Each structure stands twice: as C-alpha cells, then as structure tokens.
Amino acid sequence: MKIFLDLVQWRITLLMGLCLGVMIAPPAQADDALVADDSLLSSTFSKVRIGSEVKAVMITGGGNGIVIVDVKTGTTLYEIAPSNADLNISEMQYSITGRIAAVDRDRDGLADHVYVADLGGQIFRFDIYNGMTGRHLVKGGLLADFNGDTEASNRRFYSGPDVTNIVTEGKSYFVIAIGSGFQYQPSNTAVQDSFYLLKDKGVYIKDEQGHYTFPSTAIGHDDLFDVTAHQLTAHDVGGLNTAQASLQLQLGWRIDLGGSGEKVLTVPIILNHQIFFTTYLPNSTDACQSLINKHSDCDFSVGHARAYLVDLLTGNAVVDLNQDRQTTSIDRYTSLKQTGMVSKTEIVLNNLAKPMVCLGEQCSVAVIEFDQEGNEIPCSHEFACLTREIFGRFERIQPQSWTTEIERKP
Q: What's this model's pTM, rounded to 2 decimal places?
C-alpha cells in the first residue's frame, strides 16, 4: 500500500494493489505534497509539469505499458504502450513488474527521465519534456535488449534498475545497474543470468529536434565488456592495458553469474561509486558443498543467497574478502546466513556515523570501525567485511576535540 500525504490540503491518498486508490480528504487546492514509501508494485512517485501546471503523479507499469496518473484525481495523464496510446512503442510486448526508476537531472523536483525494464530482458528510457502538453510531453524508446534466442539466453528483469549520473574524464553520462532472473521459476538452472552496468550517453546528446538520443540499435548482451573473469586486475601489464582499453570503448560491463541457476531478484543499490546487490541460488550438491567448506549450514530443500559489492566503473571486487592477498572474482560476494530469497536491501541511518546494511534480519555496519585509540576493529565475518567497504573510512567530527577522526576513503 502507498500513502500519499498532501500537507497543504491535509489530504491522505491510499493507493492499494494495482493502481487502486482511496482518497480521504476535505476539498481544497494544493500545490505541494509529500510522498511516503515507494513499495507499490512497479510504481514511482514524482512530479511533472504539463504546460504551466505542476502535477504530483504516479508512474506505473500496467501490463506491457506505462501510465502516468494524476495522484490527486486518479486521471490518466499519459499512456505508453505498443499501440493506441499517447506514445506507441512496438517493442513493448512484455510485462513490467519491477520498480520504475525516475531521474530528476536538474534537481528542480520534476522527473526528467524514466527507466523501465521488462520480462523480455529489455530496458527502455522515456524522456519527459516538462512544460510540453499532449503527445509532446514524453519521447523515448528501446535502449537495450539482453534477451537471446536460446533457452540459456532467455533473460528476464523482474526487478527494476538503479540509476545515477557519472562524470569520468570530463564526460557525463547515466549508468543503469540491473540484474536478470526468473523469479517465478527460482529453481531454474537453464538460463545464464547476468548483472549489467549500462552507460547511457544519449541523455547528454540531443538531435536536431532537441530530443535526447538513442543508439542506432538496441545495446545487446555481447555489446558490453565481459568482466566475469576479473581480468581488470590481471598481473600481466599488457593484458591489463588491453582490458582497460576495451572497457572504455564499450557501453558498460556485465558479470555472467557463476552459480548454478544464480539469479538477481531484487533492485541493486548504487552507493559511493559501488554497487551492492544480492542473488539467489537454488540448492545443489555443489552449492551446498561450497557453503559447508565455509563452515555454513546448507538445507538442500531451500535455496540460499549471496551479497555482492563491486566497483561501479569496472565490476571489480573492492576488497580482498578471503584475505589471500589477491583480489579476484570470488571476492565480489559472500554467502548469506539466511535461506530462501532475499528481501530488498535496506540502508538504515539511525546513527549517521554508523549506517547499517540490512538484508532481512541480517544486518551489518557499512563503515570501517575504530576503537578509542584509533585502531581498526577487525570485521568478524565475511558479510561484515563486505558491507563495511560501502562507505569505508567514514569521515566524522568528534565533539570533544572538533577534529576529523578518520579521513574519508578516497
């Protein structure tokens, strides 16, 4: 359920199920509002300007289309679908079940870009031209297609992406982080699922009509640099230079998940130039043996999960997790204690100097901790060693001395 609070009208809107709403309100006119909780299926809440009027809206997936709904009236303001819509996109043939990611690029409180993924392994971008009306309000199309024509390449996106802006070597672009997985067949091991980091440079390039641009053909699985083998940390200088040059030329990277039937079923989180995400693996003899080797229990009837932390730009591991003095692909993840599918990742900020990462009931500090003498406190288990690298050496001021205790990790 979604609760929409209108602080000017003192109106409460309850949104339940698939875009159903109940309004409890005295009539009034409002021009400001607050949205609380964004867990409604495949929906995001924002504001857009249509003509001169700013409207609070819900942008939601409706089957294989998208609708923009006026939160206060329930009126459909704009529809995107394969046909008979305000914007017709023929490639939209699959259901949209994951979160829709909206981006406010100029921080004016209005949504400017929307990213959507579907069960056909496709990613779409839609650009909102605030101030326009009618069919001119939104333009967009297919950005990437990671599905193939074989059973192994039949990838699906059940969860939505996370998106952020990046500037490297003076060039700006958006990056989209997302992982594939067949949620309704969690025991499926036939599909080779992957995690993707996609560069979208078109949001900084306009055509002669003033519209943001798209690649001439949709970006595919093989168009991204394969960092699965972690070759960006190769000891061979020549091989390392070649890998780095190849990465720069391609529109992102991918990690082909290595566990049997391993899949991504939750939305990743981009934090501090790193990506935190989880995967689910159906149990097998080999998977259980791996857990047993790490002194963890394994229930053969229930799958288990992994937590990953990788560098945003390279997909590399960010810490030597197994402490073998090498940073390799196995250092990207740790196995979690809980069995079954992982709930969404939560960053808890009750104590700003000591943020926590929680996956269900398993929580750990997201910074490197120090004792009163300034000595680093060793992490007690792999999950703690992984999560504390999210923010690393967190900068904070001590009230007694008003000096910086620990410099922030570069």
A: 0.81
